[in-house]
Design a protein that fits this description.
homodimer; alpha/beta; Rossmann fold; 2 domains; six-stranded parallel beta sheet; three-stranded mixed beta sheet; 13 helices; 9 strands; 52% helix; 6PGDH_NADP-bd (chains A, B); NAD(P)-binding domain-containing protein (chains A, B); oxidoreductase (chains A, B)
Amino acid sequence: MNIGFIGLGVMGAPMAGHLVDAGHNVVVFNRSRAKIEQLELRGAVGATSPAQVGEKADVVITVLPDSPDVDEVLFGAGGVLTALRPGSLVVDCSTIAPESARDFAARLADRDVAFVDAPVSGGEAGAVAGTLAVMMGGEKDAVRRAGEVLDATAATTVHVGPAGAGQLVKAANQMLVAGNIAMVAEAVSLLLRTGVEVDAALTVLNGGLAASKVLEVKAPKMLARDFVPGFRVDLHHKDLKIALSAAEQARIAVPLTGVITQLVQALRSAGDGGLDHGALIKALERLNGMSPDSP
Amino acid sequence: MNIGFIGLGVMGAPMAGHLVDAGHNVVVFNRSRAKIEQLELRGAVGATSPAQVGEKADVVITVLPDSPDVDEVLFGAGGVLTALRPGSLVVDCSTIAPESARDFAARLADRDVAFVDAPVSGGEAGAVAGTLAVMMGGEKDAVRRAGEVLDATAATTVHVGPAGAGQLVKAANQMLVAGNIAMVAEAVSLLLRTGVEVDAALTVLNGGLAASKVLEVKAPKMLARDFVPGFRVDLHHKDLKIALSAAEQARIAVPLTGVITQLVQALRSAGDGGLDHGALIKALERLNGMSPDSP
């Protein structure tokens, strides 16, 4: 299949690579030229503009930082839509607001182009391994087409509802991850302060109802003070703001997500926005007057 | 071995049964006589007082609702200590405050009796199946003796530190479980309000970093409005107050645990204290002006 791919960042580059490996004709575009050249070496064809991607592709995949980037790449001057044929499909794997996804879907439908919001979870490791989980929102036929393409880079592709539903599930994902990190931070801090053998404690905690992927993966990093990203605090903050905004539009208060977002903001205020999101324990330590750099 | 067992409630009765099955001589006492008779049918010997248990046992296990119950049974008139021989061991599997456990350990040490705090996780199902996780605090030799006995009713027995450490890990366990339930409640509420296919969403959420035992076990019950306990809201509230008190004594603020404890209190205020702790989603629904009985 002729696939266009725009956004060769930490997630996009390995995803595009898997599509090449799966035998597709992949045309790639990225703001920085170096990333395009790396994909060319792997067998992709480089483009000089989003329009050129649209001209050559039946399916265009975008993996970009935020809604304005997607808007610009699709609808801006020299954008994909200046050349994309009717009947084509746009699949946006960025994490953006559900309302933006619905807006893109409507504007593309006016041009007879289908749209699927398809945010992913699994992080850089999942993108490299081709084991991402993809949550897709859109019309059934478009989602089926998107799933067939994304299978090359994912372990799971799930249709979760109409346009925007993929982003809502991603928002829920980011709420759960942040909340579980915050609770692990509180529990680990209590254990560290009270002379408990924390390694032994983590073993038994992971054996029962308290078990979580975050407890398994992030607690040992909190103990080792290893906050190399991984997934950066700044990005998680962006995603939590999306979740809070989505909740407000759904007319539902989510008080814990609110408090947690403020703790994440406190981390950024203190200059830790570039660390892994497991560094949330540092916000709790600062709050308690402990030096977060020598616990 | 000659084992005394006091407290034949939902957890204690099946635990005592496993000790009988393992070939121990088990002397049991409980406030209500009917529970004693059930254990006698299974091969235990009934006692008429805690003192009589102390007289016949080398190791006494207590599984009681709260610290005052343990205090009364051990040190009260007709209590275990009126008859227990020096060199014996008391193992308390109740969930109580870490400071109470340390207090019991000190008072028993004065009588040359060893003490291990050994709260359990795994719930009634784990007690019946003999697959509890036991977190033990105390001196090494006493913990070894306690572990040998409790092996008959547990999948995991872990030594986590000195006296009180078992209760601290149990407190951390209850914080994590409550926090994960609260986050699942917020995430599920958002998805329910926005037309997402929640079953499909749960599949993909459980495949990534958002995965947790609570998401796996409690989210489907929230969707089915199945709040039959399980573990009751009232008991979880008691345990969260223990955690908050332990954190205060450790001079650490745990803001999320604080907010969550208040949401759990709100559930009790509304008359839902007897439901399973997964019913926390009802507190969030009430907060948002939704009828929690017809979502």
